[in-house]
Specification:
Elements lengths: L2 H5 L3 H11 L17 H6 L8 E13 L3 E8 L17 E7 L12 E16 L2 E15 L2 H5 L17
């Protein structure tokens, strides 16, 4: 019996253990009503998507408070199976998340990752630097600001390799 056949029965168990480390999605998508288009697609033809619900996430660009609501500009990224934004991927466009009431902008610094669920509520013309830009608007129902520990969950700190290490003391 060689080593390969000896470990073959353990492979499904190892995969199961690695999969168990990944956290479950935080929001449930409503079948048939959750829009799978990305913000850049919605921005081009917002009328096509109406008031559908979305689960989007990304990196906070800015937070602006108004008398009765707060607007958060977010650069969208693809979400993993746990709905964590993947900032190493290519951006999917920007959108504005509209929250009722006041949010303390100090708690949402630029670059923090957030995932939210909400309803599309039209679009707004604006600019990114000097370039014209159309932002989809999302009225937020729920949001989650990711902590560094949560972002590391499901990413085992294990590496495999063959080699020789040399240390100098």
């Amino acid at each position: 019996m060689n080593i390969r056949t000896a470990f073959r029965p353990l492979a499904p168990l190892a995969l199961l253990l690695l999969a168990a480390c990944a956290p479950a999605p935080i929001y449930k998508a409503a079948p048939g009503t959750t829009i799978t288009a990305v913000p850049a697609q919605v921005a081009h033809t917002p009328e096509q998507y109406g008031n559908g619900s979305v689960i989007w996430g990304g990196s906070v660009v800015s937070v602006r408070n108004f008398p009765d609501h707060t607007e958060m500009e977010i650069l969208a990224y693809p979400l993993d199976s746990s709905q964590r934004p993947q900032p190493n991927a290519q951006g999917l466009g920007r959108f504005i998340a509209v929250f009722p009431g006041y949010l303390e902008s100090f708690n949402y610094p630029n670059g923090r990752l957030v995932t939210l669920t909400g309803q599309l509520s039209g679009s707004r013309a604006g600019t990114v630097d000097q370039a014209p830009y159309t932002y989809p608007l999302v009225t937020v129902a729920q949001s989650h600001l990711w902590t560094p520990d949560e972002l590391r969950q499901g990413h085992p700190n294990v590496s495999f390799g063959v080699g020789v290490g040399v240390g100098i003391h």
